[in-house]
Amino acid sequence: MAMELACTFSTSIATPEHIRIAEELGYVSAWCHYSPAIYADPWMMLALASERTTRIGLGVAVVVPRFRHVADVAGCTATLTQLAPGRVTVAVGSGFSSTALLGGRGTTWASVEAFVTNLRALLGGERIELDGRSMSLLHSKESGISLPIEVPIWVAAHGPKAFGVASRVADGVITNPTHGNEKIPFEGTCGLSYYGTVLDPGEAFDDPAVIERVGPTAALALHMGPYGPLSGSVEEKGFTEQINALPEEDRLVATHRGHLISLTDLDRRFLNGNVVRDGTLSGTPAEIRAGLDALEEAGASRFCYTPAGSDIPRELEAFAKAFHL
Predict the structure, then answer these.
(1) Same domain as 152, residue 31
(2) Less Cβ around it within 10 Å: N or C end of the chain?
(3) What are phi and psi of 179, to 5 degrees?
(4) For residue 99, is it within any domain?
């Protein structure tokens, strides 16, 4: 089956309208990033999006068990499913930037696995045992919520433990291509979340307009430091040196402030055409299509495009045209 085109959003108040546009452009799903310290609430924005759309899949990527009780997530999922029947997916992960921005650490993968198992059971109308207590969803017909509900549950996987959990309990995985070109170790549906911008004729990677369009997502390549696609570059070394000069307790927050949605002054110091070229999937439409072909060969069945900058509709349309070349 050919790779599908989806999108993920750094959730803002404008996201419901962007999801409407994505549906018109043929994107198969639109998922909202969840990071309470920097993004608008994804459940609220998806509820609004459900009123503006009829076909596009809707989801949260990713739910972090440390932030919400599993019954809370089950209730939100059940509610959104009533608003958009057959269109809802939930992705669960251990958390990184979202937890770091609130001064915490990610959840263990054992906890993620238990969370997925319990979430599926609650949505199925079953009782679960949690923290020594038995519980279930108790929605009556007067609430408008009907159980049981079958919702695909994916796992955000970025390493052996995560892919192991996904293989046991997930309906799909969402990952990214910045960890190398090896075959994705998952047999089911795999979505690759990535970003970039389509160059207009005559544009170069270091043009100011290009930097502004793709900057918030390109900066992630700097944030990954020596473990990312810019490892060893002048830009990565400079950024990493500045981060390491900070007190240890401030480094994660300083690194991920504005994650995928805005640029910090530190980002701008090291963000240039080299970062755009080597840290994103940007280029001419033909170059982007070639990059997508390589990702599909590695095992991706869905490409989840994350647009950035001040003109999200432009990015969605340009990338969709490149995808369908």
Answers:
(1) yes
(2) N
(3) -105, 15
(4) yes
**Looking at the domain assignment, is residue 203 inside a domain?**
no
Q: Of the candidates 202, 201, 167, which has an alpha carbon nearest to the alpha carbon of residue 186? A: 167
Residue 178 is part of a domain; what is its CATH number?
A: 3.20.20.30
Which pLDDT tens digit goes with each residue over 204-237? 999 999 999 999 999 999 999 998 899 999 999 9
Q: How many CA atoms lie within 13 A of 17 on its CB side?
A: 6
Query: Residue 89, SS3?
Result: strand
Specify the number of domains making up the chain.
Answer: 2
Residues 126 and 220 both lie in one domain: no
- Measuring CA to CA, which residue among 226, 274, 225 is closest to residue 254? 225
pLDDT reported for residue 99:
60
Structural domain boundaries enclosing 154: 4-198+283-323
Regarding whether 123 and 176 lie in a shared domain, the answer is: yes
Looking only at the bridges linking them, the beta strands covering 133-135 and 57-63 are unpaired
How far, in Å, CA of 285 to CA of 170, rounded? 33
SS3 per residue for 239-299: HHHHHHCCCHHHHHHHHHCCCCCCCCHHHHHHCCHHHHHHHCCCECHHHHHHHHHHHHHCC
The pair of structure tokens assigned to 270 is 């090291």
Q: How many CB atoms lie within 10 A of CB 110?
A: 10
Q: Are residues 29 and 91 in the same domain?
A: yes
For residues 117 and 216, state if they share a domain: no
Q: What percent of the chain has pLDDT over 90?
A: 79
298 and 212 belong to one structural domain: no
Same-domain pairing of 37 and 154: yes
Co-location of 136 and 246 in the same domain: no
Q: What are the CA-CA distances from residue 319 to residues 198, 200, 286, 287, 316 (Å)?
A: 6, 11, 11, 12, 5
Q: Compute the distance between CA of residue 117 and CA of residue 168 in angstroms, rounded to an integer.
A: 10
* Three-state DSSP state, 60: strand
Tokens read off for 306: 């994350």
